[in-house]
Write a structure and sequence with these properties.
The protein is α/β, with parallel strands linked by helices. 32% of the residues lie in helices and 22% in strands. β12 and β13 (258-263) form a beta hairpin.
Length: 356
């Protein structure tokens, strides 16, 4: 066992407290020694629950020091400036999503990490969903053939009236929920920057929000699968499973709790020649394929259908391996850069009016 990584958490809101602090308190390889938040009741809660020093701002915490990893769980519009401050102060930084909203911002962050000899880690925890790892395994096996189209739907029906509806807060469906499916999409797309087509809209009733709450995004490119991602707040009825994948030899459908896929072996499939010039004897093409079907179920689905604990564990175990043992990154900076590229391009194509 190596020395635990001492952690300072900036922001004790839904993510900083409910995701990061709650996970880290039970991992013996990490120790929360400092936390910062403007609200005194949150600071008091952190002192009592984690036994750590507390500060009113992340800037005060960075200046005081005594830790090596800065967890940037500030509100979204502060992510870039807080990450830069942490890196420039000589700390490794783990940033909540979105880690940036433009390529220029992201490149400033990675350049600062390199300049100051520290590491930057985007918190893309959805990469560690058990079902997503299984999807990648099935695709890599080749049984589905060449992947033609992937549809990913992260929608539901929900009205909101908080800061996540405001453009000035770097909010909206694409920047809030979107980093999860877009991260998965760029991984499935492969090592290339995709072409992007997107339509976004904002419908906030009379609540005053102006950020997108409908987003339909398509990634495409030569020799790559077409990937469709929808993040809508207006899906009153479920539209199939979260994932549907089409391949030349079969397909896959499912989501966090369960997957199923079917495929055939093209080597043993019936052989045909093209009918010329018309259909044979006025018939449709018809054949019987020897379909093979498999399924997978998340073992913890009854108590934890989303595998949420494993998401944080995956990120932090890899981070520990990188910092203490020189392990490779499972979430590369280049992959996240492509994610930022996609989201920036989506916003460029859909300039939304700002409510003052």
């Amino acid at each position: 066992m190596g020395e635990p990584i001492r952690v300072g958490i900036g922001g004790l809101g839904r993510s900083g407290y409910g995701i990061h602090a709650e996970y880290l308190k039970d991992d013996p390889d990490f120790r929360v020694v400092a936390a910062a938040d403007e609200l005194p009741e949150r600071r008091k809660d952190a002192q009592e629950r984690f036994g750590c020093r507390t500060y009113r701002s992340y800037a005060e915490m960075l200046a005081a020091g005594g830790f090596e990893l800065f967890v940037n769980a500030t509100p979204s519009r502060f992510h870039v400036e807080a990450s830069l401050a942490g890196l420039e102060a000589g700390y490794h930084v783990l940033s909540e999503k979105p880690s940036a909203t433009t390529l220029a911002e992201f490149d400033r962050i990675t350049a600062a990490a390199e300049e100051h000899g520290v590491l930057f880690f985007p918190f893309q925890n959805s990469r560690f969903y058990p079902y997503f790892r299984k999807i990648r395994e099935v695709i890599a096996s080749g049984v589905l053939g060449e992947i033609i189209c992937i549809r990913s739907n992260w929608s539901g029906f929900a009205r909101r009236w908080d800061w996540q509806t405001l453009q000035r807060e770097c909010a909206g469906n694409l920047l809030n929920t979107g980093p999860h499916p877009v991260d998965q999409a760029v991984v499935l797309f492969g090592d290339a920057y995709p072409e992007v087509f997107c339509r976004m809209a904002a419908y906030h009733f009379d609540f005053g929000g102006d950020a997108d709450n409908f987003c339909a995004l398509t990634l495409y490119g030569k020799g790559r699968p077409t990937i469709e991602v929808q993040v809508s707040s207006f899906l009153a009825y479920p539209q199939g499973e979260q994932y549907n994948i089409q391949g030349t030899c079969g397909g896959l459908s499912g989501g966090p709790a369960e997957l199923r896929w079917k495929y055939f072996d093209p080597k043993s499939a019936p052989k045909h020649t093209l009918w010329k010039p018309w259909s044979f004897d006025r018939q449709y093409c018809c054949e019987t394929l020897d379909w093979q079907e498999e399924s997978w179920r998340f073992a913890e689905a009854s108590s934890n259908a989303n595998g949420f604990v494993s998401l944080s564990r995956g990120v932090y175990r890899n981070l520990y391996g990188v910092l203490r043992n020189g392990a490779g990154r499972e979430i590369t900076l280049e992959q996240v850069r492509r994610q930022i590229f996609v989201m920036e391009e989506a916003h460029r194509q859909n300039p939304l009016p700002v409510n003052e």
